[in-house]
């Protein structure tokens, strides 16, 4: 079984290599790479290892850049002291990570898990493709970490402009190609956005696209009922004039959102 270490701090790389050897003497460390540039050159000139250990913050940027530019299908165990948001992203995408300082037992558990999944490095094409998709999805998710979302809307009302913060909003709905903003006090305002545009502007931690007609704030979800064929039926506050169903495909993502996953 072969591995490489992508780590720009020599003491950390040396310690990790010793820990790996302590856990399993059969693991061969092919290279220790200290930068994005060095890693990209190594991958261009060498076959992929069975497993990769990669720090996130390198001297010349985030290691995700390596995997954006090169289709690396080897499983990656990230070594990180990264923030809580990123760690949550790793968990959601089922990507392995180790928090620094790395403990021998946690390293052993990660390597053991890797062996169980891929069978001592005998990786199938299906597993490789699945892992590559996970990495792509993780990168896409982490790239939105610093994204800024709308915190207020400026609504035209008669001859005035009325500011409405997103915390005042219960939900948005569309009817007859018009989009309406519904405030928590049940006052409604037409706005010049499509629901597709609103999805990009609104913080997904607080707003969810329920179906083709509705985007709702978390605080507007009052009751959730199981419905026919795996769908969910919702009651919002203020109440809506039409039935609100969440499709079977969206039911689990919606539950995860409500639970804060």
Task: Please render the helix and strand layout as text.
Blueprint: E1 2-6, H1 10-23, E2 28-33, H2 36-45, E3 51-55, E4 57-58, E5 61-62, H3 64-69, E6 76-80, H4 84-92, E7 97-99, H5 104-118, H6 125-142, E8 152-157, E9 160-165, E10 169-175, E11 178-183, E12 188-191, H7 195-201, E13 207-209, E14 214-217, E15 221-226, E16 232-236, E17 244-246, H8 248-259
Parallel strand pairs: 1-2, 1-3, 3-6, 6-7
Antiparallel strand pairs: 4-5, 8-9, 10-11, 10-14, 11-12, 13-14, 15-16, 16-17
**Oligomer type:** single chain
Look at the structure and give the mean pLDDT: 84
CATH class call of the largest domain: Alpha Beta
Task: Please tell me how large the radius of gyration is.
Answer: 24 Å
CATH-wise, what's the superfamily of the largest domain? Response regulator
Gross geometry: elongated
Give, in spatial order, the strands making up the sheet with the most strands: 2-1-3-6-7
CATH topology of the largest domain: Rossmann fold
Distance between the termini: 34 Å
Order of helices and strands: EHEHEEEHEHEHHEEEEEHEEEEEH
- Tell how many strands the DSSP assignment holds: 17
Percent of residues in beta strands: 25-35%
Number of alpha- plus pi-helical segments = 8
Specify the structural class. Answer: alpha/beta
Just name the CATH architecture of the largest domain. Answer: 3-Layer(aba) Sandwich
Low-confidence stretches: none
């Amino acid at each position: 079984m072969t591995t490489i270490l992508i780590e720009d701090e020599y003491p950390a790389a040396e310690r990790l290599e010793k820990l790996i050897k302590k856990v399993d003497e059969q693991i061969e460390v092919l290279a220790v790479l200290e930068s994005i540039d060095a890693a990209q050159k190594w991958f261009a000139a060498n076959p992929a290892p069975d497993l990769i250990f990669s720090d996130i913050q390198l001297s010349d940027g985030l290691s995700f850049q390596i995997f954006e530019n090169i289709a690396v299908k080897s499983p990656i165990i990230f070594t990180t002291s990264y923030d809580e948001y990123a760690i949550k992203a790793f968990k959601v995408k089922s990507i392995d990570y180790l928090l620094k300082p790395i403990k021998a037992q946690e390293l052993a558990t990660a390597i053991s898990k890797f062996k169980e999944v891929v069978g001592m490095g005998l990786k199938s094409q299906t597993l490789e493709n699945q892992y590559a998709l996970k990495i792509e999805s993780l990168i896409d998710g982490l790239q939105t970490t610093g994204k800024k979302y709308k915190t207020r809307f400026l609504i035209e009302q008669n001859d005035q402009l009325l500011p409405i913060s997103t915390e005042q909003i219960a939900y948005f709905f569309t009817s007859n190609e018009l989009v309406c903003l519904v405030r928590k006090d049940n006052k409604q305002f037409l706005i010049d956005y499509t629901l597709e545009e609103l999805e990009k502007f609104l913080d997904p931690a607080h707003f969810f696209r329920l179906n083709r007609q509705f985007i709702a704030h978390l605080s507007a979800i009052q009751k959730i009922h199981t419905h026919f064929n795996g769908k969910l039926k919702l009651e919002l506050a203020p109440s809506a004039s039409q039935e609100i169903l969440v499709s079977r495909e969206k039911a689990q993502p919606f539950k995860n959102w409500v639970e804060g996953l």
